[in-house]
């Protein structure tokens, strides 16, 4: 069982490293410029926070 756990831990670490490198490549190095435009269009990287609407407390 220890060998299976060791293999799973190694695979998880390798997966994390590849995820980190892919995120760095795609977002920081501008490999795909359309990706940054898409993120701005979806509102993922907005600087200011939106106003919250409290519907539960206003209805009482």
Entry summary:
Helix content is 62%, strand content 0%. With 60 residues, the chain is mainly α. Keywords: Kinase, Membrane, Transferase, Transmembrane, Transmembrane helix.
**What is the strand content?**
under 5%
Please count the helical segments: 2
Report the principal-axis shape.
flat
The major sheet is characterized as:
none
Question: How many strand segments?
Answer: 0
What value does the average pLDDT take? 79
Structural class: mainly alpha
- Detail the poorly predicted runs: none
Keywords: Kinase, Membrane, Transferase, Transmembrane, Transmembrane helix
Protein name: Cytidylate kinase
GO molecular function, one term: kinase activity
What does this structure look like?
By secondary structure, the protein is mainly alpha-helical. It has a domain at 2-32. It has helices at 2-28, 33-42. The mean pLDDT is 79. This is Cytidylate kinase.
What labels would you give this structure?
62% helix, single chain, 60 residues, mainly alpha
Protein topology:
Elements: H1 2-28, H2 33-42
Transmembrane segments: 7-26
InterPro entries: DUF5359
Organism: Mesobacillus campisalis
């Amino acid at each position: 069982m220890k060998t299976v756990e060791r293999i799973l831990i190694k695979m998880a670490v390798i997966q994390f490293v590849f995820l980190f490198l892919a995120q760095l490549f795609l977002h920081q190095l501008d490999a795909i410029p359309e990706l940054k435009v898409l993120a701005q269009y979806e509102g993922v990287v907005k600087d200011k926070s939106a106003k919250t609407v409290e519907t539960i407390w206003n209805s009482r």
